[in-house]
Structure to design on (520 residues):
DNA sequence: GCGCCGGTTTCGGTGACCGGAACGCGGCGC
DNA sequence: GCGCCGCGTTCCGGTCACCGAAACCGGCGC
């Protein structure tokens, strides 16, 4: 990096991979946490470890592009980012194809319905139909959760390359609740079972009081595309019914699919 | 631009604003049309007007970032773009707040429901609840339409700064159907009426056979946030009912809003 | 075989990019 | 009022990240 012989000014760990302009742009854009609506220039400089001058220049350019917007000399992510994100094919076609069935599941069960894909070594939620105003819940649209403690995650694991499972087991399994499975052999066994019965379950392994049931979704060519799940408070969960509804959806999607 | 004394190789008009790395990245990312799932490197070079070498290098970096993915030596937009787009506050908070009411409208009317915001001089659709498998329709999530021929557009125009209306009228009004209003004075009059009655209408001005009704949405501080609309085939449209349902939603949102 | 068209790598010249320094401004404490 | 601090913004000279031409590699069709 030019003229950067000085020690990193602020908390290290940030600022990695800022060799190129794109790396800097990435740091800036990803400096926006999910919740904070807007961030000041100096704050951005602090979070990214990039000099204020440079942040200013790049932010100017991102502004003109529409990836950032500003209100009152604070920055926030701009609509162009939303537009771009909506074009992502792996997201758009899957959501458009599955949404009607998610509604069907929702009206049928009156519980929360998720659509998720495998991304890296995590579940990434593409869509969520929740019931009620504010369900105390870990999941969010575009949020991530570990593979080993979610129903969608187990479904995805079961039908992905074994390498993925190996990679997951290569590092310790994070514990989210007392019920979270952290013993590798137990997880392997569960994943095997999932392949046997065709659906995956999770019981208070992510959040106390909630359990989920999931099925995988496949494209016409047989590739794994994602997974749908139903999440319900344990006390009123009717898992057998969920399994029936989910497998029905899976079948319908496999039959008349508009999935490449 | 360094070493670029040569005339622009391919169709001009593209390649604008490619002075900087970010400009190039922008060209590359926006080279992906809504529908084409994946694009080859050479095709990207052609569309952007950037040399194949440079596209290759930048694409590599975007790949590592996750903004692009590749299958089989073709590129497509990546999940990172989706995640970024989902964080855009002007999108996320509005959608989360309005979605329940959109469902309510949908079950009530059995017709297509839209949520839109003003962006630049166009309507930008944030969310769409459609009925049936494939409604022949212009609108898409993250799609854009002109302000002057959509119900949401008129609603937004009516409650925005007058400058916006002036800017729209500064250029000729595009005609989408025979019913599209292209006479400035007529549009001005309609917008005035919208402010009077509190809702906006559009009748086969965007697509023959369809008409829409819309209301604006305001935050607690009184700023215009967006607009919701109901779109129905003309022959069965019950506009009075839509107006009632929409104004109810508008009131409910204004009362117990979670909008900043 | 040979030409063609994709993706990838090499390489030297240079201008886009960098951050320090300086500036103008508004808010706060003294 | 005055000085101080932190903010956003502008200027500027040094330099390295970035650029595209050219060469390279592999598959395909003729």
């Amino acid at each position: 990096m030019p003229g950067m012989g000085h020690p990193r000014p602020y908390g290290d760990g940030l600022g990695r991979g800022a060799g190129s302009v794109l790396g800097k742009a990435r740091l800036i854009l990803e400096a926006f946490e999910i919740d904070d609506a807007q961030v000041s220039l100096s704050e951005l400089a602090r979070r990214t470890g990039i000099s204020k001058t440079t942040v200013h220049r790049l932010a100017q350019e991102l502004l003109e592009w529409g990836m950032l917007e500003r209100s009152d000399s604070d920055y926030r992510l701009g609509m162009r980012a939303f537009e771009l994100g909506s074009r992502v094919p792996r997201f758009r076609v899957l959501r458009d194809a599955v949404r009607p069935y998610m509604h069907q599941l929702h009206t049928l069960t009156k519980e929360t319905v998720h659509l998720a894909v495998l991304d890296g070594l995590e579940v990434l939620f593409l869509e969520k139909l929740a019931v009620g105003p504010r369900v105390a819940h870990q999941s969010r649209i575009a949020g991530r959760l570990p593979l080993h403690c979610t129903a969608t995650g187990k479904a995805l694991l079961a039908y992905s390359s074994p390498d993925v499972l190996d990679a997951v087991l290569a590092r310790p399994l994070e514990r989210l609740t007392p019920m979270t499975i952290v013993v590798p052999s137990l997880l392997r066994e569960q994943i095997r079972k999932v392949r046997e019965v065709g659906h995956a379950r999770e019981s208070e392994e992510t959040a106390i009081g909630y359990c989920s049931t999931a099925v995988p979704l496949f494209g016409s060519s047989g590739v794994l595309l994602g997974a749908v799940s139903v999440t319900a408070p344990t006390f009123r969960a009717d898992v057998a019914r969920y399994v029936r509804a989910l497998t029905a959806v899976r079948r319908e999607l496999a039959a008349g699919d508009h999935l490449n």
User: Anything to note?
Assistant: Chain A touches chain B at residues 20-23, 25-26, 29-30, 32, 34, 37-38, 58, 61-62, 65, 69, 76-79, 81-91, 93, 100, 117, 119, 124, 126, 133, 141-142, 260 (CB under 8 Å). Residues 1-4, 6, 21, 50-54, 57 of chain A lie near DNA strand C (CB under 10 Å from a C1'). The two ends of chain A are 44 Å apart (CA to CA).
